[in-house]
Write a structure and sequence with these properties.
Elements: H1 5-43, H2 53-64, H3 80-90, E1 116-121, E2 124-130, H4 135-149, E3 157-161, E4 178-180, E5 190-192, H5 209-221, E6 229-237, H6 240-251, E7 256-261, E8 278-283, H7 293-297, E9 302-306, E10 331-333, H8 338-350, H9 352-369, H10 372-387, E11 408-410, E12 413-415
Parallel strand pairs: 3-4, 4-5, 6-7, 6-8, 8-9, 9-10
Antiparallel strand pairs: 1-2, 1-3, 11-12
Length: 420
Amino acid sequence: MAVTQSQSFSLFRVCVILIFVTTFVFVIKSISPVEHNHTQDVHHGHESHTVSKDVDHVTLNDRTKEGGYPLIESCQLQPPELKERIRKDLSSWSVIKNVNKDGYPASLKSLPYCSMILRIVDNKLYIVEEKRGFPMRAKSIKVQLHDMLKRYKVPDVQFCVNIGDRMANDEIDPNSPCFVLCKYPQDDRAVVIPDITFGAWPDVLPMEYLRERELLYSVAENKTWETRKNQIYFRGTATSMRNLLYDIAQKHPQYFDIEVHVPKDNSKIVPLEEICNYNYLVHFEGVSYSSRIKYLMMCNSLVIWGHHSPFRQEKYIEFWYDLLVPYENYIPLDPVEESEVLKLIQWIEEHPHDVKRIAKNAYDLTINTLSRENIECYWQTLLKEYATRIDYKPTVDNTIEDYYTNIVYDEYQMKTPKKG
């Protein structure tokens, strides 16, 4: 059949239109993912409760590229109790000096309680001085700060960090507060920061915090109260309080799955995700504080917190412990005595709905409060407030270049650049 000139022209117009539409769709698809990732990066952890490590890492990598997203000038730290913790910790100082109480410049020699003195200039992290000992702990703090500075704008500031389990409050110079992993509530010269487990601590945890967090959430989502073991579970090194519960468990084995071991006995260590196989998880402080409670809460199991040792009446706190409320996020066990333990077991059996509610509250708290964004926002908020109190201008110049090492972070390994 012959094709007329009019029909040929119509066919040509259709082809042109199809080519135009196809090109337009292709361009739109190529642009959309970038915009989508940016939106998730800005709101993840503040307005959305979705847990996604992949989005976190993709957007972090984007920020490190030339022309990536601009640094966040100011974040919205949630909930308000965290801001109040910063206010309380810094309330003892209207001015923070770069000297000790005797007038000597701030250094590891003049501030012996410091493990390291760190400085941030132009949003880069520098080591001023660092002691030997606990290298993986020091690495974890530097990892947290280095990653935070890729995303958040921080004023120029210098600060002292102690990476031990706890230091006595009266050891800290009144002119120079010290950042610490934990403290007693009355320690007014110590400023609590996100502890080493919020970074990478490969000596103890096989994966860094974000990956452990997502793994536990994934395991918890596939467990129900009916499929988990209906026992009280604990694994850890032996201490006086833990031994007390272990002895009680031997008398009532139907309720417990508890083992304690001597320090550094790695044969007794179980994978972290193993804890999510049980409905009831015990938390105890160790020789000092214990950071495990957040992992227990991520399992959506009931957390039982064994409180005060007869040798230590105060409880250690981390930066987020002000959010923990008895019978809302955990069940207290105090004192650790057989009669109290049996009362607790009876209460659990008689209040199944309350038990699940408390476990869910704790689970939700970790999602909303202990996200990467909120932890980094805590760092930014703390350092910005701290910077308003220092009476000197931190700088980096040629005269002290050898004392400053720019941090390079690669797959949880802290490396120093080779000098030419």
